[in-house]
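Predict the holo structure. Ligand: magnesium ion.
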Amino acid sequence: MPTKRDTGSALDRDAVNGPEPLLAVRDLEVHFALQGNFVQRLLSRETGTVKAVDGVSFDVQPGEVLAVVGESGSGKTTLGRALTGLVATSDGSIRYRGQEVADMSDRSFRPLRRKIQMVFQDPHASLNPAMDLETALAHPLRIHGVADRAETHRLVRDALERVGLSPVERFLGKLPGDLSGGQKQRAVIARAIILGPDLLVADEPVSMLDMSVRAKILQLMLDLKRDLDLTYVYITHDLATAKFFCDRVAIMYLGRVVEIGPTSQIFADPKHPYTRALLAAIPDPDPERSLPTDLPRGEIPDAAEPPSGCAFHPRCPAAFDRCGWEGRDLRSLLESHWLTVDEEVYERERAVVGTLDELSAPGATARISPQGGHSVTDVRSVLDRVRAADPDEPFWSGVTSIDDDGSAVTVHFAAGEDPALRTSGGVEVACLLYEPEGQGQDTR
Ligand SMILES: Nc1ncnc2c1ncn2[C@@H]1O[C@H](COP(=O)(O)OP(=O)(O)O)[C@@H](O)[C@H]1O
Ligand code: SF4
Ligand SMILES: [Mg+2]
């Protein structure tokens, strides 16, 4: 196989660095089976697996705010749901104050669930439209059976007061439909703090709100953190808000953490090429604008069929020979080449190489059979022209040789590696440009 995962992980399974973390996540995986269409389901054939969270490790210290940043589809929500027990984990460990919570049955997790609460992205969908605020806030207290009538009465009022929905008497009887977006999110936050949690996992809590109220809600969260000794995992696709809101930042890409470290360091000296691209995409003068996803070299790939080697390699401007090149990359290269040539050239080259279906096969080699009376020499000429058009394209660094047996051309790729997190200059980064510390210099 062309891909191996290196073992230079910086987070040792039982590493003890400093005080006991509030949350210790190790090698966490959440997989979803893709069930396919009705007939495939009927035959109970799985059609694949999405590794939404694929081996994530990090600690969260008490009182800390950890940002989890990544594009849509990178696994942020699934990670948050796993931390709060809302989705079953497939592998790995989540320890809360040293106690394993990943593999607990729902019932035994319940007392701990009070301590770890989630604030969802869409405040509207998080509130029952038929429930007034007093009932909605009392609901978790009832479920957990933790307060009598008088205590419930007091706690509901206190929570509303704390989130700024006051005078409280005016809000108790309101339905979600009576509230603005910002007020709804305040109500959701009130419901999340009412059980006295230690940790809030906030999943893009302001991304669906008007610009004008975003800063106010974030300030509210900071005030609550200070007053109630909270710890946050703050999920966002917006690296700009993470800058002032968070102590540390974890950058996610296709189910993995690719860089994690103190916010100041990540902003001053981003190491992973993906982090650099995200930072470069922040429009500086307006820190409130969310980050555009038009990173170089295309879209985030399908999580059900991640690229081999380093999953970022098809988009990485710094990619080199060991990054995991494969037939699919040649296919993308030919397809983007055809977008730049005349119709007539496209027709001619397409007639030589055909539909390129052979290039979808994984592996360290890629075959192209000449079509309809063409020869292997014609195929080689197409490849030569593509290379000549952009000789600096990182793809070619991964091609070790091209040969043919008279009936097909075979492109051979350098062996790819799947980089694990390694410590480099005070952060942890999953990129082959950085050697694990103690194993030589980084090669930037
Ligand atoms: N319940 C599910 N069933 C199947 N696939 C899922 C499910 N939830 C999420 N996914 C997939 O997992 C990946 C990560 O999704 P998600 O955690 O929502 O990412 P993010 O919050 O970063 O946008 C995506 O490819 C998504 O399609
Ligand atoms: S290992 Fe580093 S250089 Fe290679 S593709 Fe991944 S991020 Fe880019
Ligand atoms: Mg999400």
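Residues 6-10, 12-16, 287-294 have pLDDT under 50 and may be disordered. Residues 325-414 form one domain.
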